[in-house]
Design a protein that fits this description.
six-stranded antiparallel beta barrel, Thrombin, subunit H, binds arginine, six-stranded antiparallel β-barrel, 4 helices, mainly beta, 314 residues
């Protein structure tokens, strides 16, 4: 499956602008395709200023989810097919999001100090804990942001590379990463999900829970009485200033997902909050648009060093 879109050249990251290829079709007679390795394309021959992006991963769809009345806030199978449960020494510790057949995105604070791949397992395609017939995968590598510090709140992002590729089947699907520079407006309704506590200090839950929450602007989230001075460009707030609905302990690393004309995009990874669902203390999520360069760099570097050997790995 390949999808193509036309994008303004200016929206492509600087690093990638120098890595584009331009194809010129001759106007008449035999079709000759000239491929130029277009170093600094913008200054040379891209008069339209448009580039075509090819996407080879089908992401952000929910093929096994049929909308009907959802009782309470327990999720249905296939409703959040990108949701992963990250187990450390056989216990659910954090959530994560499937971003490709080999990579799970989570929070750095989930893995910091525990970045030993053999002690982790990734469970996908499940709604109930403990794990029954779900796919369970070994972890090959854990990478967290080099600027993450355990006492800080910034750069709270990590990636887990799976030892084997996932099989996508409708109950297990990747979520799309947003586009570089994509804006997610204040008030926009998105979804959080996880097996975390259903009250502050409570136990983790057996069923995957989910809630619909609005995005909160950095200005509103940085007000005195909210999180004045704490909200960096690496964070995005979501939830209700009046309290009542929020992520909580055990949800960390899991998705803040927004639907964009029926394609689901990962906008945040659950990071922190003061208490859970309290007034003026909404959830704070690692801002994925801010982390795109880091995510790509890690995945590309790792894949260049250890290219997949199985042809089924796509
Ligand atoms: N740090 C928590 C965890 O490790 C997530 C907290 C989210 N808190 C909140 N109020 N939204 O699971």
């Amino acid at each position: 499956y390949v999808e193509s879109r036309s994008l303004p050249l200016s929206s492509i990251e600087q690093d990638f602008q120098n890595n584009l290829v331009s194809i010129n079709l001759s106007q008449s007679g035999t079709q000759i395709i000239k491929i130029h390795n277009a170093t600094n394309l913008s200054k040379t021959q891209c008069s339209s200023g448009k580039v075509t992006a090819l996407k080879c991963l089908e992401c952000g769809s929910r093929p096994q989810y049929r909308t009907r009345i959802v009782g309470g806030n327990v999720s249905r199978p296939g409703q959040f097919p990108w949701q992963a449960s990250l187990h450390f020494r056989s216990e659910h510790l954090c959530g994560g999001s499937i971003v490709s057949s080999r990579w799970i995105l989570t929070a750095a604070h989930c893995v910091y100090g525990f970045a030993v791949p053999t002690q982790w397992a990734v469970h996908v395609g499940l709604t109930e804990q403990p794990v029954n017939g779900a796919q369970s995968l070994a972890v090959e590598q854990i990478i967290y942001h080099a600027r993450y510090r355990p006492k800080g709140l910034d750069h709270d992002i990590a990636l887990m590379k799976l030892a084997e590729p996932l099989r996508f089947n409708g109950f297990v699907e990747p979520i799309c990463l947003p586009n570089f520079g994509e804006k997610f407006e204040e008030g926009r309704m998105c979804w959080i999900s996880g097996w975390g506590a259903t009250e502050d200090g409570g136990e983790g839950s057996v069923s995957l829970h989910s809630a619909r929450v609005p995005l909160i602007s950095t200005e509103a989230c940085s007000q005195p009485g909210v999180y004045q001075g704490y909200i960096s460009p690496w964070m995005i707030c979501a939830g209700y200033l009046e309290g009542g609905t929020d992520s909580c302990q055990g949800d960390s690393g899991g998705p803040l997902a927004c639907e964009d004309s029926s394609v689901w995009k990962l906008v945040g990874a659950t990071s922190w909050g003061m208490g859970c669902a309290e007034r003026n203390k909404p959830g704070v999520y690692t801002r994925i648009t801010q982390s795109l360069n880091w995510i790509r760099q890690q995945m590309e570097r790792e894949e260049a060093q250890n290219p997949p050997t199985l042809s089924t790995d796509n």
